[in-house]
Design brief:
This protein has 254 residues and is of the alpha/beta class. Helices cover 25% and strands 30% of the residues. The strands form 2 sheets. A 6-stranded antiparallel β-sheet has the order 4-3-6-1-2-5. Strands 10-9-8-7-11-12 form a 6-stranded parallel β-sheet, sandwiched between helices. The structure holds flavin-adenine dinucleotide.
């Protein structure tokens, strides 16, 4: 196919959505599922971006149009597009959970600018709340393959250990990726819970400074439900981070 035809098709699909299919799903934490979709031909994205996902014929009357935004959790080099979500009893998530393997969806995008900065001398501090881990997983998978990345620290807050999606993958990334530190924290547990010896409580300015991060000069990225994003922004503000150095992705709807 000529490159002119390909780019015309790309423009068309960017507007109406690329056709894709569900190829797999798996539970990644309690009440949390990851969905793998066929990667459409020519679908390029940057780690950290999101898509609008629409299962076809998913409305109760069989029509299309149910659409939700999801950060891409997979690497830009991966063969599949992976999204992850907390399953709830809502119209969209009922439709998603009922999708058969092979069912058609539309993927519109990619969108957003929650992408890693280029200046490798400025550390990156990632703050994730719950399913807000999704864009960071893509960013970290990309960094793992690209030796030239800034030092990265990830603080990852969940209520309980069993709510925390992708823990094994994150631990593997921690051991395989140079210049990456991983700090999980659990907000509803104390140190008597299941022998947990790590951090507990919400991400706070004290927690950030306790780990000795030099936040001045870092670029901070926050993703998660709106309440978590506001609280993390406050913690960064208290820690003296310049507002211009904070980038956020709010998972509106939680
Ligand atoms: C850029 C971006 C990236 C995102 N990435 C992700 C991601 O990676 N993973 C993810 O899980 N989510 C992500 N989201 C959020 C996602 O798009 C959904 O909004 C979210 O998953 C909630 O969907 P839902 O079906 O559970 O709720 P919805 O049914 O869409 O409900 C949305 C809100 O309306 C409220 N609501 C619903 N019905 C009613 C009613 N009848 N009366 C009153 N209130 C009601 C709900 O309580 C909720 O607060 C992202 C959002 C954005 C903007």
């Amino acid at each position: 196919m000529s490159s002119q035809v390909e780019s015309a098709q790309q423009g068309q699909y960017a507007a109406i959505g690329y056709p894709s299919r569900l190829v797999g799903r798996k539970q990644v934490a309690e009440g949390t599922m990851a969905f793998q979709f066929e990667r459409p031909r020519n679908f390029l994205f940057k780690a950290g971006q999101f898509v609008d996902l629409a299962p076809l014929g998913a409305r109760p009357d069989g029509s299309d149009g149910l659409t939700h935004a999801f950060s891409i959790a997979s690497s830009p080099f991966a063969e599949e597009i992976v999204v992850a979500t907390r399953m709830r009893d809502t119209a969209f998530k009922r439709a998603l959970s009922m999708l058969a393997i092979g069912a058609e969806v539309r993927i519109k995008g990619p969108m957003g600018s929650f992408t890693l900065h280029n200046n490798v001398s400025r550390p990156a501090v990632f703050l994730a709340g719950g399913i807000g881990i999704a864009p960071f997983l893509s960013l970290l998978s990309y960094a793992a393959l690209n030796k030239l990345h800034p030092p990265i620290s990830l603080f990852y807050a969940n209520r309980y250990l069993e709510d925390a999606a992708f823990m094994d993958t994150l631990r593997e990334l921690e051991s395989s990726t140079g210049n990456f530190r991983f700090v999980p924290t659990f907000t509803r547990v104390d140190n008597t819970y299941g022998g947990w010896k790590g951090e507990t409580g919400h991400i706070s300015s004290e927690m950030l400074s306790k780990h000795g991060f030099n936040l001045q000069g870092s670029i901070c990225y926050v993703a998660g439900p709106p309440t978590m994003v506001s609280a993390a922004r406050l913690a960064l503000d208290e820690a003296g981070v310049d507002e211009d150095d904070i980038r956020t992705e709010e998972f509106a709807g939680y």
